[in-house]
Amino acid sequence: MCRKSGRLTPLGIVSAKRSPLLPDVPSLVEDRIFDAPADFWMGLAGPPRMPATLVKQLSHALTKAVQSPEMKQFFQKTATEPAFTDPGSFEALWQSEQHRWAEVIRARHIRAE
């Protein structure tokens, strides 16, 4: 990482809390500089009415993959902090993010050009 070499000094991270990967770097939300954390997340979505058994199988396979030694090494190398949730929790996150960013867009009168 550049931080360890001294070539890069992070001033803050745009998340709700400090990262365990950079515990001495404050969160911009914590420092009250930024009021809307923008955590990076990814998810896997399937077609509507996907069979529950298939959703369960995919969820199990993804959980196993995220916890594998190879992926743990990859996450460490890329300074990524993985968190895996169940399908219901992901659906709730998806809905809340849509609502949250729609509010930001409306409040700031953001328009596509």
Automatic annotation (TrEMBL):
Pfam assignment, any one: TctC
Q: Which family does it belong to?
A: Belongs to the UPF0065 (bug) family.
- Give the protein's recorded name: Tripartite tricarboxylate transporter substrate-binding protein
Write the lineage as a comma-separated list: Bacteria, Pseudomonadati, Pseudomonadota, Betaproteobacteria, Burkholderiales
